[in-house]
Amino acid sequence: MTIIGILKREENIKEENKYYEDAVKKFGAVPCFLTEINLEKIEKCSGIIITGGNQKGALDDILIKYALENNLPLLGICQGMQSMALYNSLDHLEKISNHHQKEGYVHKVYLEKSHLRDIVKKSCIEVNSHHYEMVKKSYLFSIVGKSSDGVIEAIENRCHTFQIGVQWHPERMISYDEVSNKLFSYFIDVCQER
Questions:
Q1: Can you give the three-state secondary structure of the chain, one letter per residue?
Q2: 62-69: which pairs have CB atoms within 8 A and are 24 or more residues apart?
Q3: What's the mean pLDDT when you consider all of the chain?
Q4: Measured in Å, how far apart are the chain's first and last C-alpha atoms?
Q5: What residues does each domain of the chain span?
Q6: Which residue, among 156, 166, 157, has the nearest Cα to 125 in the 3D structure?
Q7: What does residue 105 show for φ and ψ, rounded to 5 degrees?
C-alpha cells in the first residue's frame, strides 16, 4: 500500500482537499492528511504533497526537511512550491495581480531541460492560475519553469527523481489535462517504487 501524505491546511475547504485526495486515489495510492507534527504518521508516507493555501505554516518546512533528509518524493503545489523555493531563507512573497483565475487554462509555462520537462514531454505547457503572490528566487531548488512575464512557475531538486514544485494547481485539472495526469501518475509511480 502506497500512502501519500497531504498537508491539510486549516483554511482549505473540504472541496479543495478533495481535489488532492481524488488525484492521489486515481493513480492507486492512499491519501493521508497531515494536520500536525506526528512523526509516526509521517514515517508511513511514501511521498508528500505540500498543498496550496493562503500562507505558509510550520508544517511546510518540517515536511520539506523530512522529504529531503529521507529522500522522499515531494510535490509542492502553489503555496507548497513557494514554501519549497523559500525553504531555509528569510525572503518574503511578493504580490502579483494578474495570475488569479478560478478554472481553465490561464497562461503558458516554459520549461527548461529538467525532470519535469522529461515527465510531461513538453517544453511549453498551459496551466491554470490561482495565486496572488509569487517568489522572486528559489534557494535550494532549481528554477525550471517560468511564465512569459517571468514569474517562477516550477522548481525541482535536480538530484532527486521527483522533488518538484509547481505554482499552478494540477490537482484541479485532472479531469481534462494530459500534463496534470502525467505529473500525478509519475509522482505516484515513484512513490510506489519506494
A1: CCEEEEECCCCCCHHHHHHHHHHHHHCCCEEEEECCCCHHHHCCCCEEEECCCCCCCHHHHHHHHHHHHCCCCEEEECHHHHHHHCCCCCCCCEECCCCEECCCCCEEEEECCCHHHHHHCCCEEEECEECCEECCCCCCCEEEEEECCCCEEEEECCCCCCEEEECCCHHHCCCCCHHHHHHHHHHHHHHHCC
A2: 62/37, 63/5, 63/7, 63/34, 66/42, 67/163, 68/140, 68/157, 68/163
A3: 93
A4: 11
A5: 3-192
A6: 166
A7: -75, 130
R_g (Cα) of the chain, nearest Å: 15
pLDDT digit string, tens, across residues 93-112 = 888 777 777 678 999 999 99
Q: What is the predicted pLDDT for the residue at 193?
A: 85
CA atoms of 164 and 142, how far apart (whole Å): 9
Q: Supply 44's cell numbers.
A: 508511513
Cα separation, 24 vs 18, in Å, equals: 10
Determine if the pTM surpasses 0.90.
Answer: yes
- The architecture in CATH of the region 3-192 reads 3-Layer(aba) Sandwich (3.40)
